[in-house]
Amino acid sequence: MKDSYLPQHGSTGYRVTHYDLDLEHRPSSGRLSGRATLSAVAGETLKSVVLDLGVFRVDRVLVDGRAARWTHGDGSLRVRPGKPLAAGAVFTVEVRYSGVPRPVRGIWGDLGWDQLTDGVIVASQPLGAPSWFPCNDRVSDKASYTITVTAPSSYAVLANGSLVDRRVGGSATRWVYEQREPMATYLATVQIGRYELVPLPAGQAVAAPARLAAHAAHDFARQPAMTALFVELFGPYPFAEYAVVVTDDELEVPVEAQGLSVFGANHVDGRRGSEHLVAHELAHQWFGNSVGLADWRHIWLNEGFATYAEWLWHEFADRVPAGVSAARAHAALSRLPQDLVVADPGVRRLFDDRVYQRGALALHAVRTTVGDEAFFVVLREWTEKYRHGTATTLDFAAVAQWHGVVPLDGVFRDWLFSAALPPLTS
Fold this sequence. Notes:
The protein is of the alpha+beta class. The protein has helices at 213-219, 223-234, 275-283, 300-318, 322-333, 353-370, 372-385, 393-403, 409-416, and strands at 14-26, 31-42, 49-52, 57-63, 66-67, 69-73, 76-80, 90-99, 104-106, 109-116, 119-123, 143-152, 156-159, 162-169, 172-183, 190-193, 196-199, 205-208, 243-246, 255-257, 260-263, 292-293, 390-391.
Protein backbone atom coordinates (compact mmCIF):
# COMPACT_ATOMS: atom_id res chain seq x y z
CA MET A 1 0.00 0.00 0.00
CA LYS A 2 1.24 3.49 -0.87
CA ASP A 3 2.09 5.75 2.03
CA SER A 4 -0.95 7.85 2.85
CA TYR A 5 1.10 11.05 3.32
CA LEU A 6 3.80 10.64 0.66
CA PRO A 7 2.19 8.53 -2.09
CA GLN A 8 4.45 10.07 -4.74
CA HIS A 9 7.48 8.38 -3.17
CA GLY A 10 8.24 4.68 -3.33
CA SER A 11 6.77 1.72 -5.17
CA THR A 12 4.65 -1.09 -3.81
CA GLY A 13 5.47 -3.36 -6.76
CA TYR A 14 8.68 -4.66 -5.19
CA ARG A 15 10.68 -4.60 -1.99
CA VAL A 16 14.40 -4.07 -1.62
CA THR A 17 16.38 -6.54 0.48
CA HIS A 18 19.83 -4.93 0.22
CA TYR A 19 21.48 -1.73 -1.00
CA ASP A 20 25.14 -1.81 -1.99
CA LEU A 21 26.28 1.82 -2.39
CA ASP A 22 29.79 2.58 -3.66
CA LEU A 23 30.35 6.34 -3.59
CA GLU A 24 33.20 8.75 -4.27
CA HIS A 25 32.98 12.32 -2.99
CA ARG A 26 35.14 15.30 -3.92
CA PRO A 27 34.69 18.07 -1.34
CA SER A 28 36.44 20.64 -3.55
CA SER A 29 33.71 20.46 -6.19
CA GLY A 30 30.90 18.79 -4.24
CA ARG A 31 30.73 16.09 -6.89
CA LEU A 32 29.41 12.64 -6.03
CA SER A 33 29.94 9.58 -8.23
CA GLY A 34 28.07 6.43 -7.36
CA ARG A 35 27.30 2.86 -8.21
CA ALA A 36 24.19 1.59 -6.47
CA THR A 37 23.18 -2.07 -6.64
CA LEU A 38 19.73 -2.90 -5.32
CA SER A 39 18.76 -6.50 -4.57
CA ALA A 40 14.98 -6.81 -4.64
CA VAL A 41 11.97 -9.12 -4.85
CA ALA A 42 9.04 -8.44 -7.19
CA GLY A 43 5.67 -8.35 -5.47
CA GLU A 44 3.82 -8.44 -8.78
CA THR A 45 4.64 -8.77 -12.46
CA LEU A 46 6.81 -5.78 -13.31
CA LYS A 47 7.22 -4.37 -16.79
CA SER A 48 9.27 -1.57 -15.26
CA VAL A 49 10.98 -0.85 -11.96
CA VAL A 50 10.57 2.70 -10.67
CA LEU A 51 13.23 4.12 -8.38
CA ASP A 52 13.33 7.47 -6.62
CA LEU A 53 16.40 9.49 -7.67
CA GLY A 54 17.19 13.18 -7.65
CA VAL A 55 19.08 15.39 -10.08
CA PHE A 56 21.99 13.27 -11.33
CA ARG A 57 23.35 12.18 -14.67
CA VAL A 58 22.55 8.49 -15.05
CA ASP A 59 25.33 6.80 -17.00
CA ARG A 60 24.29 3.16 -17.03
CA VAL A 61 21.55 0.86 -15.73
CA LEU A 62 21.69 -2.94 -15.54
CA VAL A 63 18.99 -5.41 -14.50
CA ASP A 64 20.41 -8.78 -13.46
CA GLY A 65 23.68 -7.78 -15.09
CA ARG A 66 22.15 -6.91 -18.47
CA ALA A 67 21.79 -3.44 -19.95
CA ALA A 68 18.30 -1.98 -19.54
CA ARG A 69 16.50 1.01 -20.97
CA TRP A 70 15.55 3.84 -18.65
CA THR A 71 14.02 7.27 -18.42
CA HIS A 72 14.87 9.76 -15.70
CA GLY A 73 12.97 12.87 -14.69
CA ASP A 74 10.86 14.51 -12.00
CA GLY A 75 12.63 12.55 -9.29
CA SER A 76 11.95 9.11 -10.78
CA LEU A 77 14.17 6.65 -12.61
CA ARG A 78 11.98 4.25 -14.60
CA VAL A 79 13.89 1.12 -15.61
CA ARG A 80 12.64 -1.34 -18.25
CA PRO A 81 14.21 -4.79 -18.09
CA GLY A 82 14.58 -6.88 -21.24
CA LYS A 83 11.51 -8.88 -20.25
CA PRO A 84 8.93 -8.46 -17.47
CA LEU A 85 9.89 -9.63 -14.00
CA ALA A 86 7.50 -12.25 -12.66
CA ALA A 87 5.88 -11.92 -9.23
CA GLY A 88 8.24 -13.40 -6.67
CA ALA A 89 11.30 -12.97 -8.88
CA VAL A 90 14.55 -12.04 -7.16
CA PHE A 91 16.43 -9.44 -9.19
CA THR A 92 19.13 -6.76 -9.06
CA VAL A 93 19.24 -3.25 -10.47
CA GLU A 94 22.60 -1.51 -10.84
CA VAL A 95 22.69 2.23 -11.44
CA ARG A 96 25.79 4.27 -12.19
CA TYR A 97 25.30 7.99 -11.69
CA SER A 98 27.16 11.21 -10.98
CA GLY A 99 26.65 14.89 -10.29
CA VAL A 100 26.51 17.46 -7.51
CA PRO A 101 23.78 16.35 -5.07
CA ARG A 102 20.99 18.77 -4.32
CA PRO A 103 18.79 18.49 -1.25
CA VAL A 104 15.16 17.65 -1.88
CA ARG A 105 13.10 20.78 -1.29
CA GLY A 106 9.92 20.20 0.69
CA ILE A 107 7.53 21.88 3.07
CA TRP A 108 9.93 21.00 5.92
CA GLY A 109 12.96 22.61 4.25
CA ASP A 110 15.91 21.11 2.37
CA LEU A 111 16.31 17.38 2.99
CA GLY A 112 19.01 14.83 2.23
CA TRP A 113 22.60 15.36 1.12
CA ASP A 114 23.78 18.86 1.99
CA GLN A 115 27.09 20.67 2.17
CA LEU A 116 28.46 21.90 5.47
CA THR A 117 31.00 24.70 5.61
CA ASP A 118 33.63 21.97 5.32
CA GLY A 119 32.09 18.56 4.79
CA VAL A 120 28.76 16.84 4.26
CA ILE A 121 25.67 16.12 6.33
CA VAL A 122 22.87 13.78 5.26
CA ALA A 123 19.52 14.32 6.99
CA SER A 124 16.77 12.72 4.93
CA GLN A 125 13.64 12.53 7.07
CA PRO A 126 11.14 12.06 5.54
CA LEU A 127 11.90 12.10 1.77
CA GLY A 128 15.50 13.19 1.22
CA ALA A 129 17.11 9.80 0.46
CA PRO A 130 16.82 10.21 -3.36
CA SER A 131 19.12 13.23 -3.08
CA TRP A 132 22.08 10.85 -2.91
CA PHE A 133 21.12 7.34 -4.05
CA PRO A 134 18.46 5.56 -6.13
CA CYS A 135 16.00 3.85 -3.84
CA ASN A 136 12.50 2.66 -3.12
CA ASP A 137 11.79 5.61 -0.86
CA ARG A 138 8.89 4.14 1.09
CA VAL A 139 9.06 4.30 4.88
CA SER A 140 7.90 0.70 5.34
CA ASP A 141 10.42 -0.81 2.88
CA LYS A 142 13.43 -1.70 5.06
CA ALA A 143 16.64 -3.31 3.79
CA SER A 144 20.22 -4.03 4.83
CA TYR A 145 23.03 -1.82 3.47
CA THR A 146 26.66 -1.80 2.48
CA ILE A 147 27.89 1.81 2.25
CA THR A 148 31.33 2.45 0.76
CA VAL A 149 32.63 6.02 0.56
CA THR A 150 35.93 7.22 -0.87
CA ALA A 151 36.95 10.72 0.21
CA PRO A 152 40.16 12.69 0.77
CA SER A 153 42.14 11.29 3.68
CA SER A 154 41.97 14.58 5.56
CA TYR A 155 38.28 13.86 6.16
CA ALA A 156 36.62 11.27 8.37
CA VAL A 157 33.59 9.40 7.03
CA LEU A 158 30.85 7.94 9.21
CA ALA A 159 27.84 5.98 7.98
CA ASN A 160 25.28 3.52 9.30
CA GLY A 161 26.42 0.25 10.78
CA SER A 162 29.85 -1.17 11.57
CA LEU A 163 33.08 -0.03 9.96
CA VAL A 164 34.35 -3.25 8.36
CA ASP A 165 37.18 -1.87 6.21
CA ARG A 166 39.26 1.28 5.89
CA ARG A 167 41.99 1.55 3.30
CA VAL A 168 44.24 4.47 2.44
CA GLY A 169 45.28 4.79 -1.20
CA GLY A 170 47.29 7.82 -2.16
CA SER A 171 45.53 10.94 -0.92
CA ALA A 172 42.13 9.23 -0.50
CA THR A 173 40.65 6.78 2.01
CA ARG A 174 38.00 4.17 1.28
CA TRP A 175 35.58 3.54 4.14
CA VAL A 176 33.22 0.52 4.15
CA TYR A 177 30.27 0.22 6.53
CA GLU A 178 27.87 -2.70 6.93
CA GLN A 179 24.34 -2.11 8.24
CA ARG A 180 23.05 -5.65 8.64
CA GLU A 181 19.78 -4.84 10.38
CA PRO A 182 16.98 -3.66 8.07
CA MET A 183 16.73 0.10 7.67
CA ALA A 184 14.31 2.56 6.09
CA THR A 185 15.77 4.75 3.35
CA TYR A 186 15.27 8.01 5.26
CA LEU A 187 17.54 6.69 8.03
CA ALA A 188 20.48 5.96 5.71
CA THR A 189 23.24 8.52 6.15
CA VAL A 190 26.80 9.57 5.40
CA GLN A 191 28.66 12.18 7.46
CA ILE A 192 31.92 13.64 6.15
CA GLY A 193 34.06 16.12 8.06
CA ARG A 194 37.32 16.87 9.82
CA TYR A 195 36.41 14.90 12.93
CA GLU A 196 38.38 13.25 15.69
CA LEU A 197 37.08 10.55 18.03
CA VAL A 198 36.43 11.77 21.56
CA PRO A 199 36.31 8.85 24.04
CA LEU A 200 33.43 8.48 26.48
CA PRO A 201 32.98 6.08 29.41
CA ALA A 202 32.09 2.43 28.72
CA GLY A 203 33.84 2.39 25.36
CA GLN A 204 31.56 4.89 23.64
CA ALA A 205 32.86 7.84 21.61
CA VAL A 206 31.78 11.02 19.86
CA ALA A 207 33.17 12.26 16.54
CA ALA A 208 33.68 16.02 16.80
CA PRO A 209 35.89 18.84 15.52
CA ALA A 210 38.99 19.34 17.66
CA ARG A 211 37.76 22.74 18.89
CA LEU A 212 34.61 21.12 20.36
CA ALA A 213 36.25 18.00 21.80
CA ALA A 214 36.28 19.09 25.45
CA HIS A 215 32.67 20.27 25.44
CA ALA A 216 31.54 17.13 23.62
CA ALA A 217 33.33 14.88 26.12
CA HIS A 218 31.51 16.60 28.98
CA ASP A 219 28.08 16.95 27.38
CA PHE A 220 27.89 13.31 26.27
CA ALA A 221 29.59 11.83 29.34
CA ARG A 222 26.31 10.48 30.74
CA GLN A 223 25.28 8.87 27.44
CA PRO A 224 26.64 5.42 28.46
CA ALA A 225 24.55 5.55 31.66
CA MET A 226 21.61 6.67 29.54
CA THR A 227 22.12 3.69 27.27
CA ALA A 228 22.18 1.32 30.25
CA LEU A 229 18.94 2.80 31.57
CA PHE A 230 17.18 2.53 28.22
CA VAL A 231 18.31 -1.08 27.83
CA GLU A 232 16.72 -1.79 31.21
CA LEU A 233 13.49 0.03 30.37
CA PHE A 234 13.10 -0.71 26.64
CA GLY A 235 14.99 -3.96 26.07
CA PRO A 236 18.29 -4.82 24.35
CA TYR A 237 19.92 -2.17 22.19
CA PRO A 238 18.77 -3.15 18.68
CA PHE A 239 21.92 -2.50 16.62
CA ALA A 240 25.60 -3.41 16.57
CA GLU A 241 26.82 0.17 16.92
CA TYR A 242 25.84 3.63 18.10
CA ALA A 243 27.80 6.60 16.80
CA VAL A 244 27.42 10.31 17.52
CA VAL A 245 28.70 13.13 15.30
CA VAL A 246 28.98 16.79 16.29
CA THR A 247 29.34 19.02 13.24
CA ASP A 248 31.42 22.18 13.11
CA ASP A 249 28.29 24.00 11.87
CA GLU A 250 25.21 24.87 13.86
CA LEU A 251 22.06 22.81 13.18
CA GLU A 252 18.47 23.76 13.87
CA VAL A 253 17.77 20.35 15.43
CA PRO A 254 19.75 17.13 15.86
CA VAL A 255 19.48 14.54 13.10
CA GLU A 256 18.43 10.94 13.66
CA ALA A 257 19.76 8.06 11.61
CA GLN A 258 19.92 4.34 12.26
CA GLY A 259 22.73 3.59 14.70
CA LEU A 260 23.94 7.19 14.42
CA SER A 261 22.88 10.66 15.58
CA VAL A 262 24.16 14.06 14.48
CA PHE A 263 24.28 17.19 16.63
CA GLY A 264 25.27 20.72 15.72
CA ALA A 265 27.99 22.81 17.31
CA ASN A 266 25.21 24.73 19.05
CA HIS A 267 24.12 21.57 20.89
CA VAL A 268 27.36 21.33 22.90
CA ASP A 269 27.99 24.06 25.45
CA GLY A 270 30.06 22.31 28.14
CA ARG A 271 27.07 22.49 30.51
CA ARG A 272 24.90 19.64 29.18
CA GLY A 273 22.35 22.19 28.10
CA SER A 274 21.04 19.86 25.38
CA GLU A 275 21.16 16.57 27.28
CA HIS A 276 17.44 16.04 26.75
CA LEU A 277 18.20 15.92 23.01
CA VAL A 278 20.91 13.32 23.65
CA ALA A 279 18.25 11.17 25.31
CA HIS A 280 15.74 11.87 22.53
CA GLU A 281 18.06 10.81 19.70
CA LEU A 282 19.33 7.75 21.55
CA ALA A 283 15.74 6.60 22.22
CA HIS A 284 14.99 6.76 18.50
CA GLN A 285 17.21 3.71 18.04
CA TRP A 286 14.43 1.69 19.67
CA PHE A 287 11.48 3.86 18.64
CA GLY A 288 11.57 4.81 14.97
CA ASN A 289 14.68 2.98 13.82
CA SER A 290 14.19 -0.58 15.07
CA VAL A 291 10.41 -0.33 15.47
CA GLY A 292 9.69 1.56 12.25
CA LEU A 293 6.59 3.16 10.80
CA ALA A 294 4.16 1.32 8.55
CA ASP A 295 2.96 4.74 7.34
CA TRP A 296 4.06 8.32 8.05
CA ARG A 297 0.70 9.12 9.67
CA HIS A 298 1.93 7.16 12.72
CA ILE A 299 4.85 9.55 13.32
CA TRP A 300 3.92 9.93 17.00
CA LEU A 301 5.23 6.39 17.54
CA ASN A 302 8.67 7.82 16.79
CA GLU A 303 8.48 11.26 18.34
CA GLY A 304 6.11 10.70 21.25
CA PHE A 305 8.18 7.78 22.50
CA ALA A 306 11.49 9.64 22.09
CA THR A 307 10.06 12.64 23.94
CA TYR A 308 8.81 10.44 26.76
CA ALA A 309 12.29 8.92 26.94
CA GLU A 310 13.57 12.41 27.75
CA TRP A 311 11.18 12.52 30.69
CA LEU A 312 12.20 9.04 31.81
CA TRP A 313 15.88 10.02 31.79
CA HIS A 314 15.13 13.08 33.93
CA GLU A 315 13.07 10.89 36.26
CA PHE A 316 15.64 8.15 36.78
CA ALA A 317 18.85 10.21 36.55
CA ASP A 318 17.83 13.58 38.00
CA ARG A 319 14.89 12.55 40.22
CA VAL A 320 12.45 14.77 38.33
CA PRO A 321 9.22 12.72 38.14
CA ALA A 322 7.76 12.21 34.69
CA GLY A 323 4.56 13.65 36.10
CA VAL A 324 6.32 17.00 36.54
CA SER A 325 7.48 16.97 32.92
CA ALA A 326 3.98 15.95 31.85
CA ALA A 327 2.42 18.84 33.77
CA ARG A 328 4.78 21.33 32.15
CA ALA A 329 4.03 19.97 28.68
CA HIS A 330 0.29 19.97 29.35
CA ALA A 331 0.35 23.58 30.53
CA ALA A 332 2.23 24.65 27.39
CA LEU A 333 -0.13 22.72 25.11
CA SER A 334 -3.19 24.23 26.76
CA ARG A 335 -2.11 27.62 25.41
CA LEU A 336 -1.89 26.37 21.81
CA PRO A 337 -4.62 25.68 19.23
CA GLN A 338 -6.58 22.47 19.81
CA ASP A 339 -6.78 21.44 16.18
CA LEU A 340 -4.36 18.54 15.78
CA VAL A 341 -5.12 14.81 15.94
CA VAL A 342 -1.94 13.08 17.09
CA ALA A 343 -2.65 9.76 15.36
CA ASP A 344 -3.25 11.55 12.03
CA PRO A 345 -1.71 15.04 12.14
CA GLY A 346 -1.59 15.58 8.37
CA VAL A 347 1.46 15.82 6.16
CA ARG A 348 2.11 19.53 6.79
CA ARG A 349 2.14 19.03 10.55
CA LEU A 350 4.15 15.84 10.54
CA PHE A 351 6.82 17.42 12.78
CA ASP A 352 4.59 19.78 14.74
CA ASP A 353 5.85 19.93 18.33
CA ARG A 354 2.35 19.08 19.52
CA VAL A 355 2.77 15.61 17.99
CA TYR A 356 5.87 15.13 20.15
CA GLN A 357 4.40 16.49 23.38
CA ARG A 358 0.90 15.03 23.13
CA GLY A 359 2.38 11.72 22.02
CA ALA A 360 4.46 11.69 25.19
CA LEU A 361 1.43 12.68 27.25
CA ALA A 362 -0.51 9.79 25.72
CA LEU A 363 2.18 7.41 26.94
CA HIS A 364 2.12 8.99 30.38
CA ALA A 365 -1.67 8.54 30.45
CA VAL A 366 -1.21 4.84 29.65
CA ARG A 367 1.40 4.58 32.40
CA THR A 368 -0.78 6.22 35.05
CA THR A 369 -3.73 4.04 34.01
CA VAL A 370 -2.04 0.62 34.00
CA GLY A 371 0.71 1.27 36.55
CA ASP A 372 4.48 1.23 36.26
CA GLU A 373 4.98 -2.53 36.25
CA ALA A 374 2.57 -3.15 33.37
CA PHE A 375 3.69 -0.03 31.49
CA PHE A 376 7.34 -1.03 31.27
CA VAL A 377 6.35 -4.56 30.31
CA VAL A 378 4.39 -2.96 27.45
CA LEU A 379 7.44 -0.98 26.29
CA ARG A 380 9.70 -4.02 26.33
CA GLU A 381 7.17 -6.17 24.51
CA TRP A 382 6.61 -3.41 21.94
CA THR A 383 10.30 -3.23 21.08
CA GLU A 384 10.61 -7.02 21.03
CA LYS A 385 7.51 -7.84 18.99
CA TYR A 386 8.22 -5.25 16.26
CA ARG A 387 12.03 -5.32 16.44
CA HIS A 388 13.42 -4.41 12.99
CA GLY A 389 9.87 -4.27 11.61
CA THR A 390 7.12 -1.71 11.15
CA ALA A 391 3.99 -0.97 13.13
CA THR A 392 0.92 1.25 13.51
CA THR A 393 -0.90 3.10 16.26
CA LEU A 394 -3.45 0.28 16.52
CA ASP A 395 -0.61 -2.21 16.91
CA PHE A 396 0.61 -0.31 19.95
CA ALA A 397 -2.90 -0.01 21.35
CA ALA A 398 -3.26 -3.79 21.09
CA VAL A 399 0.00 -4.44 22.94
CA ALA A 400 -0.90 -1.94 25.66
CA GLN A 401 -4.40 -3.32 26.10
CA TRP A 402 -3.10 -6.88 26.38
CA HIS A 403 -1.28 -5.87 29.55
CA GLY A 404 -3.82 -3.33 30.78
CA VAL A 405 -5.97 -4.28 33.74
CA VAL A 406 -8.62 -1.76 32.68
CA PRO A 407 -9.93 -0.78 29.22
CA LEU A 408 -7.70 1.73 27.44
CA ASP A 409 -10.05 2.70 24.60
CA GLY A 410 -10.86 6.01 26.26
CA VAL A 411 -7.21 6.87 26.83
CA PHE A 412 -6.31 6.37 23.18
CA ARG A 413 -9.47 8.07 21.95
CA ASP A 414 -8.88 11.18 24.04
CA TRP A 415 -5.12 11.54 23.58
CA LEU A 416 -4.55 10.23 20.06
CA PHE A 417 -7.77 10.43 18.07
CA SER A 418 -9.36 13.65 19.41
CA ALA A 419 -8.20 17.21 18.79
CA ALA A 420 -9.22 18.62 22.17
CA LEU A 421 -6.57 18.38 24.87
CA PRO A 422 -7.80 16.08 27.67
CA PRO A 423 -7.26 16.96 31.33
CA LEU A 424 -4.07 15.59 32.87
CA THR A 425 -4.60 12.78 35.35
CA SER A 426 -2.07 11.51 37.84
